[in-house]
Amino acid sequence: MTAMPTVRETSHLRSAAVAARVGRWLGICFGIAFLTGLVSHYAQNPSQPIPFPTSPAWGYRLTQGLHVTTGIACIPLLLVKLWSVLPLLVRGLPADWAGRARDGAERASIAVLVSASVFLLVTGLLNSTQWYPWDFSFRRSHYALAWVATGALLLHLAVKLPTIREALGRDVDDTALDRPGAVARGGLSRRGLLRSTWVAAGLAVLATAGSTVPWLRRVSVLGVRSGDGPGGVPVNRTASAAGVVESAQSPAYRLVVGYAGTTVSLTRDDLLAMPQRSEGLPIACVEGWSASAVWTGVRLRDLLDLVDAPRGAEVEVTSLQERGAFRATLLQENFADDDRTLVALALSGEPLDLDHGYPARLIAPNRPGVLQTKWLSRLEAVT
Amino acid sequence: MSGGEPGRVSPGRAVLGAAGVLLTAYGVWLLLSRQDLERNLDVALWLAGGVLVHDVLLGSVVIVVSLLATRLLPAVARPAAGAGLVVLGSLTLLAVPFLGGFGRENAPDNPTLLDRDYTAGYLVLVATVIIVVVLPVLLHSLRARREQR
Fold first, then answer.
1. Which of A134, A149, A279, A370 is the most buried (most CB within 10 A)?
2. What is the mean pLDDT of residues B112-132?
3. Do residue B27 and residue A134 have CB atoms under 8 angstroms apart?
4. Which of A170, A192, A216 is where one domain is finished?
5. Does residue A169 sit in the same domain as residue A257?
6. d(C-alpha A346, C-alpha A356), whole Å
C-alpha cells in the first residue's frame, strides 16, 4: 500500500470487507446470467451440433427468466460494489515505474470490466422494456460484451483472489484490510449496508419477476407485462407492426407445406378439418416475460406426412411478414418430430387472435419466443 | 490493494487470469467481426457513456446527498437515511424505463407492453421500502440510543 489518498474519503463502509461480500453475490448473478445467456443464444442458433432438447417444455422459460432476473438483481449489487471501491479509483500512483505499469494494467482491466458490466445491465434492462435508444444491434453487442465482461471478471478474480479470501475469512467489521484513515462512522454499519443491499436486490427481483412467475404478478409493480392479453397471453409483436393485417385476413390465404417438390396448399378451414390436438406449452420471450397456455391445432408431424416428408427432416418456417430477422426460421428435426409441436389455430379455446399469429402459428416445446413463428405462410421440409 | 504479493502468483490464479484475457479477446473479436464500424462506434459511445454517467453524474449526486444528510440529519436518523438511499436509489434507477414508458413509443399499437400503472406501482414500492427498511432501522437506532443513556 503505497497509495496516497488524494481526496478525503474516510467512510469505513468503503472497504474490502464490504466489496468482497457484495462482489461474491454479484459474481454469482453475473455467472448465472452469462450461462443462461449462452443457452439462449445457442437455442437461437440455426446450426446446433448438439441438438437443443425439446424437454422439459419449460426449460427455456426457466433459463431466460433466470437470465433477466439475475441481471435485474445485479443493478443494486453493482451500484453498491462500485461505491464500495471508489477510493481505489482516485488513489495515488505508485512511486516506481514497475509499480506504475502494474497499476495502469489493473486500472485498464477494471475499466473494461466496469464499462462492459454497466453496458450489459443498462442495455438488458432497456431491451426488456423494448426501448432501443441506440443504433447498434442489441443481440450481437450484448452477446459480445458478455464475453468481454466475463473475461474481465475472471482476470479481476485472479488479481484479487488473495484479498478476497482474506476479506471473506475475517469478520465483516475487521479493520485489518481497511484503507488508512477510513474510520468515519456514524451512519450505517457494514452489516446494515450489506442488509440494505440484499433487500434492494430482493425487492428489484420481486418488483419485476411477475412477468415470468405467475404468482408474483400482483406484487411485481415494475413488471414489463401484467400477463393480460388476448387469450390470457401478452403479445410481443402485433400484426400491424409486422405489416400482416391484410395478408393474414385475406381470403386468398393458404399455408403451403412442401417437401422435395411436392406441395400442399391448405386454407384455415382445411387445417381445422384435420385432427386437432391441444398442448399446454409456454411462450417464453427472450426479453424475459413468459406465459403458459393451452394451444390447439394440427400436429406439425401430421402436416409433414401430407407431403411424405420423412422423420429426421428439418423444416424451414416462413411467416407472412415481409421483413424482420425472424421472418424465416429453421425448426430442427427433433422439434419437427416432437408430438407436442403444433401449427396452432386456437389459444385458450378461442380462435387465435390476429396479434397471436392468426390464421396459424407455430408453437413448440422449449423454444425461444422469437422462433415460435406467427402468421405462418410456408413449411418446407428439407433433409 | 493491488492483490497479494506481486511476483508470486499461484498456478491457479495464472490460469484464471489467462482464461480471462482469452475470453475478453474473444468478446472483442466477436464485437468487431459481426458489426460494422459505425455501429461499433455507437457501442463505444455507450461503453464510455455508461461509466461517465455512473462515475461523474451518479457519483456526484450520491456525494451531495450524503453530505446533505450528514449536515442536516440528526445522528440518530443517519443509518435509516443510508439504508433508504441504498434501497430507494437503486430501485429508482431501475424504475426509470418503466416510469418513462419509452418502449411504448416503439410499439404504440401493443396494449400488452408496459401495461401497468407504473407511477402508482413506484409509489407503492417507495412506501414499502419506508415501512420495511427505513422505519425499522430508525426504531433500532432510537432504541440503541435510549439504552446507551
1. A149
2. 95
3. no
4. A216
5. no
6. 9
